[in-house]
Amino acid sequence: MSSAVLVGMSGGVDSSVAAALLVKAGARVTGITFNVWPEDDRRAAFREDACCALGAVEDARRVCDHLGIPHYVVNLRDVFQRRVIDNFVDEYRHGRTPNPCVRCNQFIKFDALLAKAEALGAGWVATGHYARTVKQANGRWALQRAVDGDKDQSYVLYVLSQERLARVRFPLGNLRKEETRRLAAEFGLHVANKVDSQEICFVPTRNYRDYLRETAPDTFESGPIVDSEGHVVGEHRGVALYTVGQRKGIGLASPRPLFVTRIESEINTIVIGNASDLVSLEAYAMDLNWMAVDGLDGPMHVSARSRAHAQEAPAVIEPWRSSQVKVTFDEPQRSLTPGQAVVFYDEDIVVGGGTLAAGPGNE
Q: Domain 221-273 carries which CATH code?
């Protein structure tokens, strides 16, 4: 396979060091940056902590000039709008809590990288993600946690297919963040001290509710708040303002803590209850992608992570109906939120993952 490598460059320190390490190793490196920010949004240039904003494109170009490698910019605004932003809005409209980074990795970054690699004759693609790949004895490629557990991004990469994994490399997988910044300084990169990407890249104010108010005002139609027995106890200001497990901002006075326990978007209703109502031993996952195994034939012991920064918990996964997996945790879990990803690990290896469903058989 060709030694040419196409590196996805977001303008941050991580992808810049990934490119620099590959240049140092003697690879023929080309940098590519995706322009996904809405064209008519002037705020794009002012989010230093947002990947792929206008300022990030310029940072990536400067790094490539410094390294002496070609740099391309690809306009993916339309596909990003359709695959990531529209889905993000629709998920909140239906009472689910999405993870747009997973969608971006699934439909934007790696698809576009591999397509451009084909056009340029590059055999490999690389990014600045903190993760590792490994080829197993069974011939399948698997995703492995990064050495730096605090920066590990395997959770948002569980959607990668075998074809993608076989052609992607993560040069930072064996580094810790402080080593990455040290290397950036040694390479003379101007982004060595640039702040890390934070929050959702396409939300200028860093508050997703502000973004939804502007782009999807229909999600702010008021409706009833009911208790676990169906009694109306108040009025909500729109389903997009609430997530399962939320305590603050519900707008009800009560001598005891109240939590959002369910969002019934089809009838525009928020259900509240006690903390105990959020605890469950079981969850169901749909839209599955398997990495280390070629599907699930029976029960399997794993550790499961149900939010990007959550602690993993021991669980048993098993096939459920035709296209879901039932997850039974060893200990009760709190706030298993529909729409979030749940990723299954066998020690450091990602077995696979999916999206948490509202319940068995609920898509």
A: 2.30.30.280
The residue from 51, 52, 101, 104 that is catalytic is 104
- Active-site position among 51, 64, 101, 201: 201
226: CB partners within 8 A, 6+ apart? 232, 233, 269, 270, 271, 272
- The β-bridge relationship of strands 232-236 and 141-144 is unpaired
278-356 CATH, one of 2.40.50.580, 3.40.630.10, 2.60.34.10, 2.40.30.10: 2.40.30.10
pLDDT, tens digit, for every residue of 263-305? 999 999 999 999 999 999 999 999 999 999 998 999 999 999 9
Closest C-alpha among 25, 363, 70, 20 to residue 190: 20
> Which tens digits make up the pLDDT trace of 85-110?
999 999 988 888 888 888 888 888 88
Sheet arrangement for strand 168-169: 71-75, 28-35, 4-8, 124-126, 168-169
pTM for the whole thing?
0.88
104 part of the active site: yes
201 is catalytic: yes
CA distance 184 to 191: 7
